[in-house]
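Continuing the series of single-chain predictions for the mutant panel. This is the parent chain; the variants come on the following pages.
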Amino acid sequence: MTTPGHQTEEEACARFVEWLDEQVIAAGRGDKLDTLTVDPAATFWLGRLAAEDEVRSGPVNDRYERLDPCAIGIRLRPAGGPPWSMTVTVRACAWVSDGAKAKERTWHRTQPIEVPVAVTVDGARTAFGREQIEAAFAAVGAPGLSAEVRVEVEDWHERTELVVQLVNTSPKDGAGPAGSHLFETQIEVAGLETVPFQLEALPDSFRYRRNVPAYGINVGVEQPAPGVFRTTDTVTVQTYRPDYWNGREPQPDLSFERLATDPLPPLTELVEALAEYDEAHWSAAVLQRRAVEDGWTPEMRKEAEDAADEVFAELNRLRAGLAVLRDDPLIRRAFQLMNQAIARSAGGRYESWRAFQVGFLLSVLPFLKDPKREAETVDTVWFATGGGKTETYLGLLLTTAFFDRLRGKSMGVTAWSRFPLRLLSLQQTQRFADALAQAELVRRENGVGGSPFSLGFLVGTGSTPNRIVPSSKAEEDVVTPDSPGMPDQYRVLLRCPFCRDENLRMSFDRATWRLNHLCTNPDCVWTGKPLPVFVVDQEIFRFLPTVVVGTLDKAASIGLQQAMRGLVGAPLGLCSVRGHGFTYAPRRSSPNGCLVPDCRGGTPQPLPMDPKLFGLSLRLQDELHLLRDSLGAVDSHYESLLDHLQEQITGTKAKIVASSATLTGYDRQVGVLYRRRGRVFPQPGPRAGESFWTRPTNRPLRRFVAVAPRGVTLEHVSDRTVDALQRCVRRLLHDAPAVCTEADIDERHVPMLLKMYGTNVVYGTTVYDVEAAERSLDSNSTVEGITSTQLTGSTNFDDVRTTLHRLQHPEDDFAQRIHVVVATSMLSHGVDVDALNTMVMLGLPLTTAEFIQTTARVGRRYPGLVYVLHKIGRERDAETFRHFRQYVEQGDRFVDPIPVTRRSRRVLDLTLPGLVAARTLMIREPASRRALTTVARLREYADESDMTAPAEAQAIIELLGFDGEEDTLHRDQIMQWMTNWFANLRDLSLSKEFPKVLGAREPMRSLRDVEPTVPIHEARR
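Parent structure:
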């Protein structure tokens, strides 16, 4: 028992999670029930076995048999030859009805049976114990039920395998009042010497062991003692929180305060500790010893040597970063100012970097010294979700922003950070805003010149406006100052980034034509002024905030509006009217190039900074692994376009930094997307789960429970699982002493447990699954007063913000809280809520990467519990259930290489209009010093300039890198397209007015504007 007052919150949570799981499993098996008024065969989803004859009377296929199996078993490899002897202990019970009419019938649970069956096998197939098991059922009041132990010998494998099964041999039409099902079934095999299997789903690796003691058949397998194998109805895998330091000496002082004042000594200690670790674990002598001790194959030895090369290259990069900090006073000062800002942004929640975060910063810092060379490499920070990737690249971003100001870039965009999901997480945006706000205060206090640090939210229609037009010019679907919901519905921030007060007010300033977030806290340093956050597309172009965050889709706008030029280079001027911002090419609605409606008095003034300095320093890509298939293919063309435009306009190239929770195939993916080399940090360690940067602990992180439902629908299991979880929490609420005694929990933790485990997440891979789950829960829940809400890509901003606030600040009355969140992938990226600690997954996600990302949303701070309901009829789900432990523990090895190619001719057909339009808008039009907005004006310019079909085609070919032997068809396609485009341009009889319609299709409006049937093929070499 726990000593009162000594149990920590984490210990209480761990015990509560174990207790919750026990209750859910009991509900699935019926362990704690004695009577039922409904058919148990339609109620329980675990431990049950249908009659063999009933299963045989259905379709003859593995899928049908898995849905309601008649057998459970264990597959073993015996160590020696026949005969094989063992003891198989059978456990089960029955439910017996009272024979009343259907609506009045009651079922009673019998006492469980436990029958040890002696087994000796020397033939191909043998059955044992039927008479013993029949007699045991008869003795507990269930005559007619029968089962037997069957052992099959499979000698066609590399090594002989034994399949030991319990088969329900009861009559399919029922054995009297007991029906035909068996319940709470289990077998235990003892006394057989075995050798392990080798996991076939994964290749050999010097980091991992592939030993699997036994495989379950329709069940999991556990080993309660050496040489004993027992079936389990679920497969439970416990993961543990890591420590973020594994050096021999104590971790150096990596606090924000120390690095802000005197960074070189602790960073030198860090690099020296890394060097010592690498030598101790990766030297040639160490690898040779391990190769002998662990029996490495030549391939494993080569893999280890290649990994060692990467590890020592990483060490050299950290040394180079340390040298840059030591030798360059501007970079060092930027780094120190960044640490001041991050310390303030953290707000006391944490006071120090994790070692791997500082390591990544050191490894990337050389790009500030030599941006041209370093831009040719994409650096990806790879670490387990929840490890602190966002804070890591925020540190890099602020260092770069301070350095830009110190080197003379006094305005303009430093970084453009893109997120691949349609709905950018409000929490992610808030993190950026918090960091930039505190950086702005640090900038002012330290006398660093330039414009205020600011944030742009570039998402657009559906979330925030593309533009705001005067009410007198209102059109359908266009936002005006008087539109319904204006301005409150466009609030993006959850709180003031300066003072953290949540009482923000939205307003629209007609004088400066700005949609503003205002802090109402009278003590805030920013009170009375609009917060430096821009959420309208055209405001972002007018003011070019220091950092722009947004969805990946918006990159397509580069081929649609000239004002996107500010994200790759310099605008054309600055409006003379104070507060109007930068100007761009003149248009009918903005004849002077100012984007403020009806700005007639302003005139474009020269830029107050060297135009070459407007080029982006950083492009950040969050969740790199989601750039796959058609989205990745389309994006690869636009990434090349962004590079091309920035180089043409400013002569510079942005450094690309990415983050990902998965590692497989990143180098090839980076090559396809960006035409650059890929590099990952940190390199994996010498053994699974361990490196210089991390080591495992015994502190629970997440408890994964794989469930293969039997005989009922997935929705039924989801409903009953949520019911069980909610009943448990309500018991804790109303009968805390009893629950705390059962779970061995100190009662002082009850309020915290109610807050942390009172909300369950139901996760579906599609909106259809989510909506069906919510309808089913609403209709079938047996718990009164469950409040549910949805979080999907179609959930509007107001609802998302309200839901997040309620989850982070739950109502005092438990009955008024959100009890269930049903969600799709919108939840799986950037949502960080401490109170989400239990999850029910409706089927295995389609990719392992999605599984890793999604389950990481629970257990962020406290131990989490995840039920993975396998759609067991699907082959992939069935195979994953078979090796679920390895799937969780070696998850990154199950991640498929990202399917993406830039050489799809169908995709090229989609992207060409945008590529050509962007070159016209960003390069040709500024050079012409006139608006090229009509076919007639563009034709006139083409006649006077060097703009020809061959020249434009060659420019497109070069920017896409289609210069290889395998690209002949792509070059021909581009040349033909440009020839047709120019033919239309010069056709005086053509009635088309605008250049965007000169091609067969218009430029893409979103990178997701891809037909679902578009094939993505690899080029044949």
